[in-house]
Structure formats: C-alpha cells, structure tokens
C-alpha cells in the first residue's frame, strides 16, 4: 500500500458524462485480449472503447487523448460515476493510468468502496461546487487543481473553490496510508463472539 | 422500537461500530472465476487464511464457454484463469462447483437452488448481482476483490450503514407483465441511482403475488437502481421454495428455522428513510432503448426526444445513447429489427423464465437472420427444462440450446453479440459494449425476447400472445 497522502496536485481532466459505468472503465473484450482478464497493463484497457476506434487508432475527440491533459492525476466526472459491476479492475485501471482522485457529484457504492480500499480518492461535490469547478476548469489552460485531503478543500490555480465530502473512515485510510485489515485484526474477538451468538440462536447459519 | 426487515438482519450481524461504519458478520461468501483471483493474491501477500471454508462456495460461471460440449478448456483466452481459480479454491478446501458438476450454473442461481442462502442471512460475492437472493429475505450484496479477501479472512466486512428505502407496488399486474417489467419501470421512473446508498425493501400486494423466482429477478436489478441490497420479506412461498434444498435445514431443524423466519418482516410502524410507490396496473411490458437501465419505456412507447430531457446532462446522455443505439428520437420502439435474441443470465434464466418464453415460442419459428439462444441459469434448470420438453420447443423454433453460464450477459466468455448488432436480451445491463464491442442491447422480459425472436423485431408480446390458441 501507499504511504500517507494529504494532498493531490496536478491537471484535472473533465469527463462530465453521468453514469460512467464499469464496462466503460474496463470493457471485457480488450481486458481479455490485452492481459487475459488480469491485473497488469490496465492503463491500456482503461476507457478502451472510447479512446480507440475499432482499428486501434486513438479517437482525437475523446478527452483523455487531448494532449493538454496528459499525466493528469485528477478526473472530474458527473453523476453516479462507476455504476454497474463490482469489478475492482475499474479502480486499478484508473490508478494504473495515473489517476489519484476522481471528483464527482456522486458515485456508485461498490466503486466508491473499492476506490477507498485502493487509496484512490472518490471526492463528492455538491452541485454548486461542481458547477464552479467545471466553469473554472474551462478557463484554465491546463487546469491546475489541488486537493487538500485533510481540510477537504479544492483549489484551482491557487484559488480556493470549495470543499468535498467523503466517507470518514475511507478518507482516514487514504490520509494515514493504512487499510482496514489491520483495524479488523483488533476486533477478531468481536466477530467470533457475534458469529457464535448467531449460530447458537440460528444453527442453520453455520456451514 | 419498530424496525425494518433490513435493520433486524443488519443489527443482529453487527459485531462492532467504528464511526459511520459497521463491522458486519457474514454467513456466506460465494466466489466465482472472474473476480476472485486477486483476492487470493491479497490473502497470500498478507499471510491470511480462509476463516471458514464450510461457509464458502465457489462456482465456475463467468468466463467459460456455454456452447454444447464445452468444458473448462474450451475458451483458451480465459482457461488459465479458470484453472488458477480451480487450483486456489481446491487447495484451500473451499467447496467448488465447476463445469461438469450437475449443480453447476450461474453463482446466484446455484446459491438459491442449493439452499445456500437462507432468510435472515448475510451473504456476499464478488459480483454486483449478488442482491438477487435478497428475494429469499437475506441481505446479499456484491463486493470488490479486496473485500472478498477480507470476507474470506475474517468472515466480516466494514460497511457504511445503508439508508432504508421501501418501494411499494400495489395492484394487479397484466398477465404479460413480470418481475422484470416492475424493476425496469421502477428504474425508469426513479433513475438508475434512485436507490444509491440504500437497502431497498420491495413491498405491496403486487410483490407478494410474485413467484419467488420473479422476486429474484426484481431483487437482481436492485443494483441497476443503484442499491447494493434489495430484499423482500420471506413468506410461505419462500419457505416452500427452500424446503428440501441440499443445504437448507431438514426435518425439525427446518420447522424451527421457519418459525424464526416468520419474524423477518418490517414492523408495521417501522420508519424508512425513503419511500417510493408505483401502481402495478400502470406497468406495461418494458423495453430499454438506450445505454442505461433507466432508459426503459413501455413497449408501445416512443424513443424519447432529448429536447424533453430533465436537464442538460441528461440531454447529452440521451443524445449519445441515441447515436450509440442507432435510433431516432420520437419513433416507436416497436418494430425495431433485432439480430440476436438472448434468454439467459442471473436475471432471467430460471425455470419459470424458460417456461414463460417457451409458451410464446411454441409452434413458431425464429425469424430468418436472427440468432436466438437460450442459456439456462443452471445445469439443474437445463435438466428440468429438458424433462418438460422445453428444449425441444426452443430447438424446433430455431433457438440454440446451451450449457449454463453467464454467456452474453457480460461477454466475459467467448459469446458476443457482434459490432453494430442489436440484441433483445433478458439480461441486466444495456451499457455500451456490454455484450461485446459495439453491441446494442435492449433489455426485456423472457416472453418479450421470445416475441422479438419470432418477429425479428421488438414486439409487444401482448399482441403476439393474442394470436395464441
């Protein structure tokens, strides 16, 4: 796992579609073709059907192919980002491509939890902040954004522009560079006691 | 204090609370061949063991071929993954249902058939459609691969506590309207993220009247409504469904379980964070036109005009969806020609689905140039369908009759729709490229897909059925 992460700075790419789904993030066909459905080379698979035409040539009108956004660590999305499947490769592909944060009006639940577990920041914005960021980004070339994970604030070109919300425990894991496995290890006795109580009352819950 | 069904199960399984999250004890962990391998890597890296193999079950379904005569090596692209999955689970002593096993099928279908999910349980699987078995009165939900590792190691997960949402459907359904149509109608009306952050309880007279298998279809689509969890209070229909299943309790144990399961209902004055309602009589057979499950309309409706969209982002999404689906705004969806008809998936490939489709197909022929296939939800469903002669009805009409697996629902195996081809599908997602690169998907119920296969175009099954003897 990565170390502590208190800020993310760099270019933000606007991909303002709503309902960006996990099949858009990691489509099955190139995923199977490129790495047999595995975990390596996922940067090639990310948004594959939008980045490349059927002949494998980059589509010039897709925002990730725009030269001004190369190397961007922040993706600005619309609503319900990451809907669909539970496939964690969707998060791994974003990380492998170089993203450290996705900021959006809302996220699909499983994607959001998968993001926290891999220390990809899923930052939620209210509609007004989202609109301010969209308009500020359109004026800035290239748009330089900084995200303060501790204060939960976002700035563009050095100007504060608003705050984001996040799941408390998830954000703490990213900031501290820890994960929940270590936390759970402290509570094994609680799990065991709960399981025992349940199985005593309802024996069919056992194996 | 009155509680919802969801709260009763969740609270009894909460081992610890930390801030806004609960450490939820799990009763069952299901695994399949697509998302589990990284979890085993995580276990190895962290030197963790599987806590309780007897409460896990592994099934091979996602990445395999389904054509007759297939085996685990038939699809060379994913065969190494299947082999590695088989090795990982076998080494750890996790029970495995692989190809060739008479119990094989799609994991959620198998879990219910085996009686491995029971009312009041918490169950997880690395698949978003795990919510299917909420139909049995369980909290069942999809998780990522890191969560699979955590669930295997600790038989528990840290989860944000969901809000509660009740969707009430009262009234009597048209005979050609099914659980699939209810779900699509709910998603179309309340949007694909209408249930995000919620555990959805489906209630009302129309839900009570659904068969257990139709409730599974409805709960299956909870994730397309944004909700990780969907459930229905268990009743006599569920108890008789479960009686005699291999992993269900037997004899006096079953009676004791049933008497405990009778308490699994929301209290009369329980509070829900959100309430939605829909009138059963208003629901027509539904068909999706676009690239999100919320893009669903009554089959006699028109493809929507982006000019009438609720806001700018919806308008631009509709415009893109129209281009992708190659449809014209304002035109009737009826009569749209199809290339492929798919009856399958964890949404709609149980025995009652196959029976309903066969009723439409019986004595008819699949339209020329349409590739039609049935991929039963499990090998058990396939055997039972064959015993009833359904396979002969489908084959005689020109359908392919496959072995069980996920097939064209996710295109993770060799089955794909084809670029620019249009598929009438009983599956759950009409995302771009979902059924293979360039595929165009129209979600609908099994009888609706059967009608489309016969006519070679999107058809109102109510009018086709009217000609049945």
From TrEMBL, chain A:
Residues 4-126 form the Aconitase A/isopropylmalate dehydratase small subunit swivel domain. One of its GO terms (biological process) is L-leucine biosynthetic process. The keyword Aminoacyl-tRNA synthetase does not apply. It comes from the Bacteria. Pfam families: Aconitase_C. Pathway: Amino-acid biosynthesis; L-leucine biosynthesis; L-leucine from 3-methyl-2-oxobutanoate: step 2/4. Keywords: Amino-acid biosynthesis, Branched-chain amino acid biosynthesis, Leucine biosynthesis, Lyase. GO terms for cellular component: 3-isopropylmalate dehydratase complex. Its EC number is 4.2.1.33. GO terms for molecular function: 3-isopropylmalate dehydratase activity. It catalyses: (2R,3S)-3-isopropylmalate = (2S)-2-isopropylmalate. Belongs to the LeuD family. LeuD type 1 subfamily. Catalyzes the isomerization between 2-isopropylmalate and 3-isopropylmalate, via the formation of 2-isopropylmaleate. Heterodimer of LeuC and LeuD. This is 3-isopropylmalate dehydratase. It comes from Bradyrhizobium huanghuaihaiense.
UniProtKB/TrEMBL annotation, chain B:
The keyword Thylakoid does not apply. SUPFAM superfamilies: Aconitase iron-sulfur domain. GO terms for biological process: L-leucine biosynthetic process. Its cofactor is [4Fe-4S] cluster. It is an enzyme of class 4 (lyase). Pathway: Amino-acid biosynthesis; L-leucine biosynthesis; L-leucine from 3-methyl-2-oxobutanoate: step 2/4. Keywords: 4Fe-4S, Amino-acid biosynthesis, Branched-chain amino acid biosynthesis, Iron, Iron-sulfur, Leucine biosynthesis, Lyase, Metal-binding. Residues 7-456 form the Aconitase/3-isopropylmalate dehydratase large subunit alpha/beta/alpha domain. Its EC number is 4.2.1.33. GO terms for molecular function: 3-isopropylmalate dehydratase activity; 4 iron, 4 sulfur cluster binding; metal ion binding. It catalyses: (2R,3S)-3-isopropylmalate = (2S)-2-isopropylmalate. It comes from the Bacteria. InterPro entries: 3-IsopropMal_deHydase_lsu, Acnase/IPM_dHydase_lsu_aba_1/3, Acoase/IPM_deHydtase_lsu_aba, Aconitase_4Fe-4S_BS, Aconitase_4Fe-4S_dom, IPM_dehydratase_rel_enz, IPMI_cat. It holds the Pfam family Aconitase. Heterodimer of LeuC and LeuD. Catalyzes the isomerization between 2-isopropylmalate and 3-isopropylmalate, via the formation of 2-isopropylmaleate. NCBIfam families: leuC, PRK05478.1, PRK12466.1. This is 3-isopropylmalate dehydratase. It comes from Bradyrhizobium huanghuaihaiense.
